[in-house]
Amino acid sequence: MSADETEIRKLRWRCRRGMRELDQLLERWLDREWRQSPTAQREVFLRLLDCEDDRLWRWFLGHEVCPDVEIAALVDRIRSLPP
After folding, report:
1. Calculated CA dihedral for residues 29, 30, 31, 35, nearest 10 degrees
2. Domain enclosing residue 42, as ranges
3. Number of domains the chain contains
4. Using the 8-state DSSP alphabet, how is residue 35 labeled?
5. Residue 27, burial from CB neighbour count under 10 angstroms (0-12, 13-18, 19+)
6. What's the pLDDT band for 1 if we cut at 50, 70, 90?
7. CB-hemisphere CA count at 13 Å for 58?
8. pLDDT tens across 13-37, in order?
9. Measured at the alpha carbon of residue 38, what is the angle toward residues 36 and 43, in degrees to the nearest 5?
10. Tens digit of pLDDT for each residue in 47-66?
11. pTM (2 decimals)?
């Protein structure tokens, strides 16, 4: 198993939030965008994964906007990915 595959397996575990909808949103971005994303974008995703589930849910539903502009932009991008 390559180092990249190992990292993705670890990230997939971090994407598991106990709320299926959040899991699907986060894993969709991981599967479709992680490999080709620049380091700066990956770092924003890692910061997003550090956020609390209830905040993530409010951001993804559009009830609140994350005060971190980079995370807010990533949330919008993840929300816009087709299922």
Report:
1. 110
2. 3-80
3. 1
4. T
5. middle
6. confident
7. 9
8. 999 998 999 999 999 999 999 999 9
9. 115
10. 999 999 999 999 999 999 99
11. 0.94
- CATH number of the domain at 26, please: 1.10.150.250
Please state the length of the chain.
83
Inter-residue contact 77 to 59 (CB < 8 Å): no
| DSSP assigned state of 36 | T
| Whole-Å CA distances, 68 to 20, 51, 77, 79 | 24, 11, 14, 16
Q: Give the integer Cα–Cα distance in Å for 15 and 69.
A: 21
Please enumerate in sequence order all residues whose Cβ is within 8 A of that of 21, keeping only pairs 6 or more positions apart, or say none: 57, 60
Question: Residue range 67-74: average pLDDT?
Answer: 98
Read out DSSP for 68-79? SHHHHHHHHHHH
Upper half-sphere CA count for residue 49 (Cβ side, 13 Å): 18
